[in-house]
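I hope you will forgive my troubling you with a question about protein structure. The matter concerns a single protein, recorded as an amino acid sequence and a row of backbone structure tokens. Please examine both parts with care and let me know of anything in them that strikes you as inconsistent. Thank you for your consideration; the sequence and its tokens are set out here:
***
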Amino acid sequence: MHHEPGRAVLRGFGTVLRDARVSRAWTQKRVADLVNAHCGVSSVTANDIYRWEKEIRTPDEYAEALASVLGLDVDDLLVLTRGVGRPMYGAAARFAHPTALDAGDTLVAPTTEKVRAGFDGFDDLLEDDVWRRSFLKGVAGAGVVTAGVGVGTGGGGREMLEAHRDLRAAHGRLDNLSGAATVYSQAVAHHGQIMTWLTLAGSAAERRPVQALAADTGGFVGFLQADLGLADAAFASYREAAQHAQQADDVSCCANLVGQASRVLADHGDYAGARSLVDRALSIAGTRAHPAVRCWLHAVRAHHHAGLDAAPEARADLRTAWRILEEVQDGEVPSYIGYLSETEINKWQGHVMWRLARRNPAYLDAGQTALDAAREAWPAAMVRGAAEVLASSARVHAFRGSRDVAVAYATQAVGVATTTRSARNQRSALAALGVARQA
């Protein structure tokens, strides 16, 4: 179709498209197929719908077909304006539009090749400032790095560092209570402030504590992006944050960030790539990393092994995680891994066991026991994370044939994931609900 002069697609059309699709309980692939049928073509894919909803691309000649298929007026997709430039692409678009995805959405996940290029030569990568400059450019394009950030140029001082750490901790609490979408823009802006502070720091002694803070805030941004379904942005954020952790000589933080990046791959089915990354994380950790980080990494690797149906390796990692857990309380736990507890390891054991139970039902008892213990002790402040435990509980009961119990748990998981707008948990919870209904 041809647009009228002076008309252009603006930010906001993605929300219109997504809301219309979700109201019909359609997947992105279903919409793509209907648009193809309407236009007599076969070129529109689910990934195109994803990009339009994220406003990474504009629908252009397909706007009229989309309107027809979704029951919209085409004017809902076109906004009269003057002098509108091209829509945002790449990193700027990802930072600006953290809309959660729902079941059936197509994600552009990092590839195994990207993993190998990014982390097989991890030490060399972390010393390369090219990506860091690219990151700053992308964030600045999204308008979150601004002048007048309110931090001094002369070392900052302990009080300034503590204030920023407190703010990071507050953002983390809000995420746990209300979900990533609630705090995402503030967290990105805060990380931008820390990055600007880092550029103003003078001596190595002044830079190191700010680099450690940048690793923490950048890793938190990566976690939020992963939770919102922005896989490629999350992977890049973890990589940049790990660079700062290495430069700050924070082995624990660096290893934790590489482990977090492995979860991005596992969330999209690349368990081999995920295991390679967590292997690298454990190599970085060695014996220097905090026991809480090493414990968590073994629990996560057990999960990746289970995804590859490697039962002996998964069980060995779980045993190691439980053993190291005994050391965790011997000292102060870093804030970014402060959630590590017996309840957290029970959650991961439940994840592992239901995956292994797909081939060997004998693992169901251990899975249910661990998940029952995790649910009973789950902290009230960790609202978003409750969806993970509930979804895994639903799967275990579905495998046992307890349909009503499974549906109840899965329905609760969907409710938590929807309320907290967690794309990661919503995808898993809806899949668990599908399994439960078929039990």
Q: What stands out?
A: Residues 326 and 418 are 35 Å apart (CA to CA). The longest helix spans residues 204-227. Strands lie at 7-8, 79-80. Residues 91-96+106-287 form one domain.
